[in-house]
Design a protein that fits this description.
The chain is of the alpha/beta class. The chain has six helices and seven strands. The chain is 33% helix and 23% strand.
């Protein structure tokens, strides 16, 4: 999820990632038979929304960037079960997100931290968790919440597991976590991010 809207310099976000198929395989392995609906927050061009709809879920992708929403609708709008909405998530609008069985929050929260601060972004995470039964949460493995708190990716699982514990206490259960390479070129060559699967039915 970026602010790139200049069509001359527009580059699909998903094309910069080297791990989309691996991450979707991980997500898919943690979907249950009772899961019917999915929300993809910050869906960019809709890779995961499309994959979830093809899997058989009613999938909604929300994205603030108009160009990316248009791209998602153009490329995936004819897929049964996939829909895309332009929606800027803020502390005031996060409660407007729909309730779904599954929610993807993949490399999104740190944008909220940058825009609104750690405390507000944490409350936004709480709000998202109240609307879903299974949360897939992916923070940046190269820093702990803010750019001025760099961490070794090897330490990120423990640091963010502790953060989730501080935020939710025993109301969530981390079911699994895996590390994925973020991108294969540019400024994030060596970045690896943890992807958590959490049962949030008790939040």
């Amino acid at each position: 999820m970026t602010d790139d809207t200049d069509q001359d310099s527009y580059e699909p976000y998903c094309s910069r990632r080297s791990d989309n198929e691996q991450r979707w395989s991980f997500v898919r392995a943690h979907l249950a038979d009772e899961h019917e609906t999915l929300l993809d927050v910050g869906c960019a061009e809709g890779y995961f929304t499309h994959a979830a709809a093809e899997y058989g879920l009613d999938a909604i992708g929300v994205e603030s960037d108009e160009a990316r929403v248009e791209s998602a609708r153009r490329d995936h709008g004819d897929v049964d079960g996939a829909s895309f909405e332009q929606h800027t998530v803020t502390p005031e609008t996060v409660a407007d997100l729909p309730a779904t069985d599954v929610t993807l929050l993949l490399t999104v929260q740190h944008h909220w931290v940058g825009a609104f601060g750690v405390e507000a972004a944490t409350e936004m995470l709480r709000s998202v968790a109240t609307k879903t039964d299974r949360l897939f949460y992916e923070p940046p493995g190269s820093r702990f919440l803010t750019p001025d708190r760099p961490i070794d990716p090897d330490d990120s699982v423990q640091r963010y597991r502790e953060y989730l514990g501080d935020v939710f206490g025993e109301s969530i259960t981390v079911l699994d976590v895996a590390m994925f390479s973020h991108v294969n070129e540019g400024e994030w060559v060596d970045r690896r991010d943890p992807l958590f699967v959490a049962d949030t039915t008790s939040v």
